[in-house]
């Protein structure tokens, strides 16, 4: 999973990125301190792995990972080359989803590029730049397929779709809310790789004192939540999520060991770090889950799409597992831990033998049987 962190300059993007990845991206009180997109690989927090690792005395524990890309601050006119321009818009096309950091705190020591705090204006500024960039992409593609439309039925269908999409975008609507009418349109739509079809998580960056009550009294956060709810209601969609984070606190948490982190979170009155909540929101939004494998050599989490059947899940480990799939022996994580071992769970009839049509569930501990 690859997530792009975007936002206007000085909203806390690079501070958040540093705290998530400990990659040390430069963070400064001026626009464009991020010149190239910073990339960091982050382990997905999963307490189940240590429990299984201890149970099996595993030589190593391998968590699932997320790749974060810190993309430089966008400003008005980015689609036309303002600020650092289109090079950063191009970086967004490569990610699976967008984490849009929105500033929801006052601080006279940190300059806002627009001179005031207004999260909805900030969101719409960036959305508009993404729309302009998508229109430019579609215009180039339209000029090419229009020439072929008279002699090619698919080109004619594509040209017609582009015309409708461009009108949709020109009305200020995002591509992800365009109502596709059939499978052919869906296939063409996906081939456009539009920025505004990316799913979005709004990260409301607040001060420390707003964390304990999930920013219930922060008027800026309330506006972002209302915006996201209205956005989803109007478009009959559940695409956008909002979660509260304090980038500065996350950076402090990142420097602590597990025990210190737990105590620090308790003092703040919160149960999970921003990273843990971001991972949950990302998995939920993208329809992902993790199944587990465990043994003396390795305990590992594997990320798959919800709805993946057993042979395809086996293929995540190795193509031979999918090609020669026989069956999957599966026990629920909670049952396995309660029994103390795979054999004990098997003796109690808690290990199931599942075939090719079984859909893997989150928390399944799996042993694949295959023959090639």
Number of helices: 14
- Count of DSSP strands: 12
Strand numbers in spatial order across the main sheet: 2-4-1-5-6-7
Structural class: alpha/beta
Percent of residues in beta strands? 15-25%
Report the major sheet: 6 strands, mixed
Query: What's the end-to-end separation, in Å?
Result: 30 Å
Helix-residue proportion: 40-55%
In sequence order, what are the helices and strands, one letter per element? EHEHEEHEHHHEHEHHHEEHHEHHEE
Textual characterization of the structure:
This protein has 372 residues and is α/β, with parallel strands linked by helices. The protein has 14 helices and 12 strands. The strands form 3 sheets. Strands 2-4-1-5-6-7 form a 6-stranded mixed β-sheet, sandwiched between helices. The chain is flat. The two termini are 30 Å apart. Mean pLDDT is 86; it is low at 30-35.
Topology (SSEs and partners):
Elements: E1 2-6, H1 13-21, E2 38-43, H2 47-56, E3 60-62, E4 65-70, H3 86-92, E5 97-103, H4 119-145, H5 153-170, H6 183-192, E6 199-205, H7 219-235, E7 241-245, H8 247-254, H9 258-268, H10 274-286, E8 288-293, E9 298-305, H11 310-315, H12 319-323, E10 325-332, H13 333-339, H14 342-347, E11 352-354, E12 364-370
Parallel strand pairs: 1-4, 1-5, 3-9, 5-6, 6-7
Antiparallel strand pairs: 2-4, 8-9, 10-11, 10-12
């Amino acid at each position: 999973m690859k997530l792009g962190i975007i936002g206007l300059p000085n909203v806390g993007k690079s501070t958040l990125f540093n705290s998530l990845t400990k990659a040390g991206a430069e963070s400064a009180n001026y626009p464009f301190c991020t010149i190239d997109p910073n990339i960091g690989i982050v382990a997905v927090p999963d307490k189940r792995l240590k429990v299984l690792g201890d149970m099996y005395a595993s030589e190593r524990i391998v968590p699932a990972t997320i790749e974060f890309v810190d993309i430089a601050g966008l400003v008005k006119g980015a689609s036309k080359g303002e600020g650092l321009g289109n090079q950063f818009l191009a970086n967004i096309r490569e990610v699976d989803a967008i984490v849009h950091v929105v500033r929801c705190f006052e601080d006279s020591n940190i300059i806002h590029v627009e001179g005031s705090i207004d999260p909805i204006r900030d969101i719409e500024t960036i959305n508009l730049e993404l729309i302009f960039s998508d229109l430019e992409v579609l215009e180039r593609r339209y000029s090419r397929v229009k020439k072929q439309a008279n002699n090619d039925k698919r080109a004619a269908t594509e040209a017609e779709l582009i015309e409708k999409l461009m009108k949709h975008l020109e009305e200020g609507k995002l591509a992800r809310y365009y109502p596709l009418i059939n499978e052919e349109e869906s296939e063409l739509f996906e081939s456009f790789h539009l920025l505004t079809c990316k799913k979005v998580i709004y990260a409301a960056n607040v001060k420390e004192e707003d964390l304990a009550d999930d920013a219930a009294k922060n008027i800026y956060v309330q506006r972002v939540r209302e915006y996201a709810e209205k956005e989803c209601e109007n478009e009959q969609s559940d695409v956008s999520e909002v979660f509260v984070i304090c980038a500065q606190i996350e950076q402090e948490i990142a420097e602590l060991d597990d025990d210190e982190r737990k105590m620090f979170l308790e003092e703040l009155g919160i149960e999970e770090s921003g990273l843990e909540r971001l991972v949950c929101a990302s998995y939920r939004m993208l329809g992902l889950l993790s199944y587990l494998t465990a043994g003396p050599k390795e305990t590992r989490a594997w990320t798959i799409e919800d709805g993946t059947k057993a042979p395809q899940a086996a293929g995540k480990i190795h193509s031979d597992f999918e090609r020669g799939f026989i069956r999957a022996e599966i026990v629920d994580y909670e049952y396995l831990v309660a029994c103390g071992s795979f054999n004990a769970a098997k003796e109690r009839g808690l290990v199931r033998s599942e075939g090719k049509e079984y859909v893997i569930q989150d928390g399944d501990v799996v042993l694949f049987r295959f023959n090639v």
